[in-house]
Write a structure and sequence with these properties.
Blueprint lengths: L10 E2 L4 E9 L7 E19 L3 E7 L1 E6 L2 E6 L3 E4 L5 E6 L4 E8 L5 E3 L2
Antiparallel strand pairs: 1-2, 2-3, 3-8, 3-9, 3-10, 4-7, 4-9, 5-6, 5-8
Length: 116
């Protein structure tokens, strides 16, 4: 499979504000990992939550305040994040640019829980 990232449809998510996701590689295509692209619009956020699967992320664009397990950091284009399963995390966009990142997760059921 080869497809340009601009050809994928983004779907709005209910979590947070201004959040959308495009499924780039699904569990129907790849046996081990899914690849998704998230966009959080300028002024948007994703609330503090946990996932039952780990996340490997690569920031494509923008800047955000990311809280992982209670520790706050500013992340930007080119940064790589690893979020272990069960660890609470959140995102808040900083500045006028949308925050976009690739997110790889194992092909397992992902239970999401809001924290706090």
């Amino acid at each position: 499979m080869i497809k340009n990232i601009k050809k994928f449809e983004e779907k709005s998510l209910d979590a947070g504000e201004g959040v959308s996701m495009a499924m780039l590689i699904s569990d129907e295509i790849a046996p081990n990992f899914m690849m998704r692209k998230f966009r959080i619009k300028s002024g948007g956020y994703m609330p503090y939550h946990t996932n039952s699967v780990e996340h490997e992320q690569f920031v494509l664009n923008g800047k955000a305040k990311v809280v992982i397990d209670g520790k706050e950091q500013i992340v930007k284009e080119g940064d790589i994040l690893f979020i272990p399963s069960g660890i609470a995390h959140s995102y808040e966009v900083i500045g006028d640019e949308d925050y976009e990142f690739l997110c790889l997760v194992p092909n397992r059921e992902d239970e999401v829980e809001l924290v706090g």
